[in-house]
Every structure is written in structure tokens, then in C-alpha cells.
Amino acid sequence: TSTRDEAFFDLNLTVQGNKTIYESFDRYLEVEMLDGDNKYRAEGYEELQDAKRGVKFSTLPPVLQLHLKRFEFDYVRCVNVKINDRLEFPGELDLRNYVEKSSGNEVYTLHSVLVHVGDVHAGHYYVYIRPFAENNQWYKFDDETVTRVNEKEAIDENFGSPTPRKLSNAYMLQYVRKDKAMSLLKKVEAEDVPKTLEERILLDAEEEENRRRERDDFHLFMDVAFVREESLLSHTGVDLIPWDSAERLERRLIRKSMSFRELAELVTGHLALDSHQTLRVWRLCQRQNGTIRPDRLLTYDDADVPLSKLSGLGAELQLLVQTVPKSAVEAMETDEVLIFFKVFAPKPLPVLVCIGSLACTRSATVKHSIQQLMKLKSVPRELAVAVQAGNITVFEEDTPPPIKPIDIEQTHDELGLGTGDIVVIQLPPSVLLHSLPPSILEKRSTPLQGMHQVKTASDYFTYLRNRIHVEFRDLQKPAEKGIMLELLKTDTYGQTRKALSHALGVGSDPDKIRLYPFDIVTNGPRQDSLSLVQLNSRGDSLENMLEMDYRPGGYATMESKIFWYERIDYDLEEFEKKEEVRITWRYDCGMYIQGASTAIAETEDRWMRTKVLSVLVPFHTSTYEDVTKEMKKKLGIPSEIPVRVVEVKSSYVCRIVPLSELVPHIVHLPSTGAQLDYELRAEPDVLDDMDRHHLGRGEYSWVSILHIPRGNYLGSRGYFGDPFLLPVKAEGEKVGVLRERIRKKVRVKEEEFDNWALFAITGSSADALDDVEATWSVGSDEIGSTSLAIEHTRRVPPKRTYGLMKYDKPLMIKS
Q1: CA distances from 785 to 652, 713, 762, 778 (A)
Q2: Between the CA of residue 100 and those of 56, 189, 454, 565, 788, what are the distances in Å?
Q3: N or C, fewer C-beta in 10 Å, the chain?
Q4: Radius of gyration of the chain (CA)
Q5: How confident is the model at residue 808 (pLDDT cuts 50, 70, 90)?
Q6: What sign does the CA torsion over 306, 308, 314, 318 have?
Q7: Which positions ≥6 away from 341 have C-beta within 8 Å?
Q8: Is the pLDDT of residue 712 over 60?
Q9: For residue range 345-359, what is the model confidence (pLDDT) as tens digits?
């Protein structure tokens, strides 16, 4: 025996299945048996032990907080639900019988009732409070509205009701011990209010007034963002401005009427420049091709111009800030333009980096400007050597196309180069670029896992503009994180599978992999895989594949950059020529219950394990017998073992499929998620020794055995787990015999199975079979018309499923 003392702030009491708050306390103090797979590891014992676990109250606090569990997870439907059931609670709560060594003072009076109105997705909270112990006057606090109410409205009308129209009920209760009520609920005097609380209230009021004033004056202010030139020198991507390093001034500091001179002083103070430095500020604008580049230098002539005029139509004024010594400040000549220069080197790893800017005369040649550029400290020495040797290739960065070659013997005017344009200098592969800052060298990586060669600046720009990171998850583990690969939007289906196969490692064949795109409806993998026919009609590219989730925006959203992959036994092209039948082989006929106290040994025979597989058969003429033959061949199932095929939907056996029935042709359309709980199952069609001995030579009918969770069946028609078929004598069998046969089938220990109830399910009604001596008969040979169900706790939470009913949102408190 082991015990420990544990303090609590509140008690979580179950609502479902209880009629009063006292029943909830009884359930809270129930002793739980730890046995089967839930045994306890006790100190001093090597093996797990059967044990009992429970809670006892040694003392209860003066103020008792009770949380009523109105929100729970429904394991049948895999959704959060609100429990609106009626739970009565008194104005006076006597808990003396619930305390181990009661002092006789554990009698409580109700002080407040917190109410939630709404459902699991959204709602509203308000509270009923009886502030004074000497009278029974209740008040309703609903946001800023306070009203007097009577006791019936505060208590009786918040017990709850399962009817859909009554969605308001008590969520939390606060009780005060009766002998402490007068002292705890005495009238609050001014001196009782802590000084810190008074100050906090005044501060909150002041902050609210400031927020109101800011809302009223919002239109008088504007946003300003600026980028330092130093940030450009660490930029290794396309275009010029690394907006992730942009700095923004507080909007409340920038009035639209503020002059440029005032803004420059503000930025100077923000950058903490010393007395020897000053700013050179360039206005940025968005060009027609979508790039953001400097368009003109702001000078003394702009000193008194209001910022609203400088920003033009843009909501935000964007600036490039250069820090220069005051002694070096020179005005830009009218025939000068500001050109930015980048260097690209393919070796040892591809890198593209901005190395600086230069004020260039329009009539000067690009060659002359590059020679002047070599005087900058930021120029790598390898570039200076290559320029001196004339061993470079020069491009202009533009969009579209990404870059175009230029003749360095031509002038800037002849080439149409103006302020904000970018010149890219490419080093030959023989030049290894090492003399870059460590922060730049650390950013270099092998593009596309080394599967594509990047030899030129043109290759690299194509890579930068088309690269995309895609996650590939295993279809058998759809919710688990997968492999992240860098690919190109232009990659074909074959190239994508080849890259994935390379990442999966030895033994992976790209021709035996298929991909499932993201489905917005199910928030998971789409039911059908990518089709070669679809890709041929839409365009075989990764960009089109990612857009096949059928929603506006497509792959632009983060969650849609996911594929689920499946290893298949056939070459992918065969799936276009034959009918695919998805089937699950269950050697155990669905009788294994995960999490129960079973002892099923693992087998080494491949065909004696559960396996989900795809079987390909010819179109239009194939029967389910052809499917089972192909399945036997793939799994190595002995030919003499007869097989039956059953349809299972929502953990319910619908029918036994005749093997002579033709396989229907399935047209692959975008999945709605409605069929994700459907399973076509194959299993041995033989009676085991126990059934043969029990049935003898008499006639029998197959009955579906279902699983229902405790307390969740009525009104929800919810089943879980894997149903299975049991042969039952045509004339009927005693309930006790049926219980024992089912127990042996599912291999559950007697002491555990004794706690499981048995029901007869007909249509939407469930009748408990409590009399073990009573005889039960099927009544109909049609599978599913009458079933048996065992009621037990679902020990293992369901695997993550993707369907129409997916609500993983937390409860949100809204006023």
C-alpha cells in the first residue's frame, strides 16, 4: 500500500451518467482496478502487479471550487462534444460523508454558478453570484450588465437538459463552508481593497482610455519601415530587400503630417549614430514586375515635405538607409544612378550574395563601374582577381526572365540600367569562393539534395524562384511528421518520386511509390492518389500536383505543402490499366481487441498477419473471387484456405460479399471524406475447433459482434474497433453460453469480461441481455439486421482519422 498527500485547487466532476452532484462525488471516489494491460509497477516487485487505485479526502478547503466536465472527447466520433445532461446541485452541500475523518463542518453553501451557453465550438459565459451570506439575493453578471435574479433562475434553471434547445448550463460551482460564510462573504469596505488592486484598476482605466484615443486617431498616423544597407550585404536570395530584417517604427510616433526632417532625426536616434555619421535615405517603391527597389534619394529639398506625400498611394513608407561619414557625404549628380552588385559562385557550393552599391555615371560603361566596385571593402578577393583577369560573366537581375546577359562594354544608358537595378557577376567554376563572411558561408547548402546540377547563375536563379519545401508523410502513419525535401515547382511526378525514393534509402523503387495530395475537406490525405491521366491533362508539374487539393490559393498555404506516400507492390503505370481493389486481410477475423487483457502471440508467417493491400484485377470482368485469388498469391496464403469477403462501415458489418459478384468500376473523383470509414475485409471462411464442437451438425447463422463504449451508445449509434462474425445456432443459444463463446473469441480474462455488458442490437434499439439463462436467437439470416454488442471501455484512443467531422479546436471563451 502506498499513499501520498496532494493539494488541489478545484475538483473535476463527471456530468455524463450522473443525476446529482452527490453521484458525481461517488464516481470521483470510485476505486479503479489496475489489471490486464493496465497493471501497476510496485516497488519491490519485478513483475507488474494487480492493484487498486483511488482517492480519499482528508480535508476540504473553506472555499470549494467544482468544475463540471461539460466538455469531453467522444472516442466514437473522434470529436469534442458538450455534455448538456441534467446534473442537479443543491444550495446547501453536505460532504461530511465524503471526508475520511470528518470534523462535522464539511457543510457548504452555494456562492456562485458559472454558466456556459453554446456548444463546443463557440459560446458565452456569465455568472450568478450570491455576494452576501446574510440574505439569499442572487445577481447575474453578464459582461457589463448586472441584474437581480431569484434563486430558481440562478440554481434550478442551470442544471442542464439534453434537449437541443437548452444549451445553457452550469460549468463551474463555487461553494463556501457554512461556518466560514459570514467571515468570507462579509461586506467589503474601502480599507479592505488592497492598494495594489486599486492602482491596477486605475491603470487599466488609463490604458483603455489610451487605446480609445489611438483608435480615434488611427487615421492620422502611418507606418514606416526601413532596411539598413548592412542587411543587403547579408542577403542571399533574389531581389534586393530582405524584409525579414526590416525595422519598423511605432505607428503612434509617426504622424502623416510629420516632415521628412523630423523622421530623419527620429531614425538617427533609433540607430544611435555618433556625431561623425549621418544618413543617406532612399525611398523604395514597388515596380510593375513586383520587385521593391530604390527609386530616388531623399535630399534637403525634401526636408519639409510631409510624409503623406512621400509615401504616395502606399500604406507604408519604405526606406533604404545608408550610414555614411559626414565628411564623405556627396550629393548625387543628375546623371548618376545607384546600381547594386551581386556575385554568384557555383563552387564549392552555390552562393549568391550582394556585395554593395555604387553611384554610376549613366555614360560610363558597366566594365568601368565594375572596376570602381573593386575598391569596396566588401568585395571578395577571388572576385577582384577574376575581374582583373577578365574571367567573369555579367547579367542583369530582372523578372521575368530571372536574369539576362549584358555586354559590359556598353554604357548604363545603352543597357537601360537605372537606380535600383541589380548587376550579377558570375565567377567561373574553376574559382572557389571562400573569402565571404562566416554568416554567409553558413547559409550555403547543396540545392535539391544534389539531384540537380547548378552550374550557372541562370540555373541558380531558376532554382531560387522555383524551389519549394514539401513534406512527405507515410500513409500508414498519416498524422506523424515525415521527410522534408527541397524540390522545384517544375519537377514532374516522376522526378518527385525519384527524389523521395532517394531520401527513403536503399530498397526504395520510385516506380513503386504513389502520392496522395492534401484534402481540405478531411484535413488529411485525399482518398484517391495522384493519377497519371489527371497530370497529363493538367500539366505534369509539382506546382499542379500541389494545387490538386481543390481550393483557392492551393499550395500557397503551409498545410497543403504535404504529400502522403504509399509503397505499392505494382509498377505505378499498372494502376492506370487495371481496377484497384483496396482490401484488408484479417487472419484473426477482427477478433483481437487492442488494449484489452489478451495474449495473442506474434507470428512469423506473413499471411497470418493483418495486412492492408491493393489488388489489381482487369476492368469490368473481374469478380471478388479473382480479387481473393490475387490477394492469396501476393500474401502467400495457402490455396486450400477458403476466404470470405465482408464490407465493414463505421465498425459495423454491412454484408458478406458473394465471391461471384462483379467488382464495380470506381471512378476516381475528388474525395469528400465520406468513405474514409469504409473497409473491404477478407478473412478465413472456416469454423475453428471450438465452433465445430459447439455447433455439431446443426444449422447456424452468422451474427455480427460489435463494440460499443460505456454510456455512449444510446442516441449516438456509435461503434468502435473491429467487428467480427460469430456462428450462432439457428434455434438460439443461452445468453451465458454466448457470453463465454464471445469471451474466448476475443481472448479476454474472465474477471475483466464479467464487467462487460452484452446487448442485442436491432435497428436503432439496444436491449440488454442480463439473464444468462435466457435463450437468444437471431431471428433473421440477413447480416446486420440483428447484431450483438459488447459494451466496454475503449482502452486505446483511436488513431488519428481524417473525416468530415474533425474538430480539434480548443474551447474558446468569448464575451
Answers
A1: 11, 17, 6, 9
A2: 7, 38, 77, 58, 43
A3: N
A4: 37
A5: very low
A6: positive
A7: 354, 355, 356, 357, 358, 370, 373, 422, 423, 424, 425
A8: no
A9: 988 888 899 998 999
Residue 128, C-beta contacts closer than 8 angstroms, at least 6 positions apart: 112, 113, 115, 138, 139, 140, 141, 149, 153, 154, 155, 158
For 507, left (φ over 0), alpha (ψ -120 to 50), or beta?
Answer: left
- Predicted confidence at residue 670, as pLDDT, reads 34
448: left (phi over 0), alpha (psi -120 to 50) or beta: left
Tell me how far apart the alpha carbons of residues 352 and 585 are, in angstroms, rounded to a whole number: 55
**Pair 724, 591: CB distance under 8 Å:** yes
Are 543 and 491 a contacting pair, CB within 8 Å? Answer: no
**Mean pLDDT (whole number) for 607-616:** 84
Q: What is the pLDDT of residues 72-89, one digit of tens each?
A: 877 656 678 888 889 999
Strands of the sheet containing 247-248, edge to edge, are 247-248, 223-228, 316-325, 277-286, 292-298
The CA-atom distances, in angstroms, between 258 and each of 255, 294, 472 are 5, 22, 52
Contacts of 681 (CB under 8 A, 6+ apart): 583, 584, 585, 586, 590, 645, 646, 647, 648
For the chain, what percent of residues have pLDDT higher than 90? 37
Q: Is the pLDDT of residue 731 over 80?
A: yes
Number of residues that make up the chain:
815
Q: 3-state class of 325 per DSSP?
A: strand
Cα separation, 446 vs 346, whole angstroms: 11
In three state form, how does the secondary structure of 214-241 look? HHHCHHHECEEEEEEHHHHCCCCCCCCC
**Contact criterion met (CB below 8 Å) for 104 and 110:** no
Stretch (H or E) spanning 485: strand 483-488
Q: Can you list the positions of beta strands (E) in 346-407?
A: 351-361, 393-397, 403-405
